[in-house]
Amino acid sequence: MQLFYGVPEDIEKWMSLITQVRWNFPGLETQEKLNEHRDTVLKFMGKRQAICVKEENEIAGVMLFSRGHNMICCLAVAPAYRRRGVATMLMDEALTNLDRTKEISVSTFRADDEKGPAPRALYEKYGFVADELIEEFDYPNQKFVLHPIGAERKARQLAINRMVREITHILADCGPIIYMYGTSALDDFRLGWSDIDILVLTEKQISESQANLLVDLRQTILAKEPDNPYYRSFEGGMLTLSAFLTNTTDRVVYWGTSGERITDRYLFDSFGMEELIESSVLLYGKDIRKELKFPTFHELYADVKRHYETIRKYAQSTGRSFYSFDWMLDIARCIYTLHTGKIIAKTDAAEWALENNLCPDPDVLRFALKVHRSPLEYKDDKQTFDYAETLAEPIHRFADVLDKELKKNYYYE
Q: Per-residue pLDDT tens for 10-40?
């Protein structure tokens, strides 16, 4: 068997193979869809992004890949040629065409799908890591990612996957749904500074024994992997979907910066709700985001105002902590939200504030951004933390700008 780059003369045999395995590809159910796929294949052939393996005059397997999107788009092997190394030949060639210094992605079947084991095993053999749950053509799939060597995000994703396995094992009879939102979902996570925010919703109430296992889960896993820097970063709440939707009491497991506990309510502000609806990542279970109510601007405004009041109250002096710099980023995001009604990453909001000359002390905000981008480089730097202790005045001057933005609005009280 030999590998070739597809040419238009191959299209009939190529489509014959695709027609054989169309049951394995959501979105190819009709002749019209097959015709559309044929046109797509021809376009990929024209860009030398279509490869096939042939044995004599027969096409044994095909693949489409995209250099522009750095992804594998389609992989199919004829039933008669499976387990003969065809997929490996296609993968090896595709990866030589893609940028290994960046993330390479592919969509495949979920773990509980009967069609999933073979392709998932292939991608895992090449080092791909299971990522978010997605849907394509209204069919449940999962994204897999091949990370660059030494990528921080790979280590983080492996920790996320481990945490999801542990939570779903404990809550197996409760129908868990798990989302990740916040900095990780917004691609603004910084090891040494950021949290990994998760929300676990269940169909059935969490039992007392399950809650006791969950409340100590971070420490339990950390005891097994003491050098893993991620498990202590997980924060969030675990409760029934019905209690979350109606904001009623429930048996709730809470993980926070200061500790963990079993409580009876989980407060989710409008910032969190908008992030959950707009930018969260589904890690497990069915997607219920369409059932959620998008926060009104009035609700966002009220939470911005609460942020403002917290800043005024607690930033009278600043300590030797990265979180002293975080006040500057938080103010920038609040101002952005008042301007747009949207939530973005704090890094992006700070850059926006600088571009629009909104900060009275731009050098302070630039330094806060610098520390935020690379906290591990500054974690032992005495001068950085000496500087952190001097930030009260620039924080309050920036808060004055936020105050003016609040007063421009009808809802100011």
A: 999 999 999 999 888 888 888 999 999 999 9
